[in-house]
Design a protein that fits this description.
Elements (H helix, E strand, L loop, with lengths): L13 H26 L3 H31 L5 H25 L2 H33 L8
Length: 146
């Protein structure tokens, strides 16, 4: 297992926590497939990795879009910064997948997931998503002067 459930931070909005739990399940399943491919690099295992990575990518697009719609509706002041981080994460996910497709080196996915994704995800939830969820809950901007 790449990420233990108890290591996933929680935020003030249940819908965000539920989506993060879905992410966690997909990411852990994908990492298990990556390890299975590493042990047995068959075409069938590659297809499983590719299919789940594509599912994860689509899920991530929907995850980010749901947050972005709410940020727009609630006029969240740091929306452009949060959206920019989402766009960067999707760009990296796409680039990693393209590199994996071109080079067929499973270490590309394995290293991305263990070295980049986990720290990024936990940091993103602890910072961007925590502030955003508090704003959704309270309507108070993190940029407000007290």
């Amino acid at each position: 297992m790449l990420i233990e459930k108890e290591n996933m931070p929680l935020v003030a909005m249940d819908f965000m926590n539920e989506t993060h739990t879905e992410d966690l399940d997909i990411i852990n399943e994908l990492f298990e497939l990556v390890l299975a491919y590493e042990d047995s690099p068959t075409l069938e295992n590659k297809k499983r990795v590719d299919n789940l990575y594509s599912k994860w990518f689509a899920h991530t697009i929907e995850h980010f879009r749901a947050e972005e719609i709410m940020m727009e509706e609630k006029k969240f002041p740091p929306y452009p910064m949060h959206k920019g981080e989402h766009e960067n994460a999707l760009r990296v996910m796409d680039e990693v997948f393209r590199q994996w497709q071109a080079e067929q080196d499973i270490n590309i996915l394995k290293n991305y997931m263990s070295e980049h994704l986990v720290p990024w995800l936990i940091n993103h939830i602890n910072t961007m998503d925590t502030v955003t969820a508090r704003f959704f809950q309270s309507g108070v901007s993190p940029c407000a002067i007290h």
